[in-house]
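Most newcomers find our protein records easier to grasp once they have seen one. The structure tokens are whole numbers drawn from a learned vocabulary of backbone shapes. The record below serves as our worked example for the rest of this section.
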Amino acid sequence: MSAAELEDFYDETVTVRTFLGSGAWGDEWADHENVRCFLDETRTLVRDGQGAEVISETTLTGPPEYATIFTPGSEVILPTRTANVIKAGVANKGFLDFPAHVEVALT
């Protein structure tokens, strides 16, 4: 299966405002970017970057080239609500030859 074949499953478009950090004037955000993705609205217990257990309401799956915009705390505007990134990571091609993709846990 190629990455192009996986794109057929990306049936939603979300808008991402990447959290850059806090500066002298408050929180700083990158310009928004639209991303085609697949959304799974299943509630899941996950660990955040500090190891704390938190509830993820949505898992977003998308093209791996967008992995860097999903920093923890980034804002993701979903079709029904606005969520924040808990954690994100790239799932690389494994022995099953499944294409690489980014998986993002959202509040």
Q: What stands out?
A: Helices lie at 3-6.
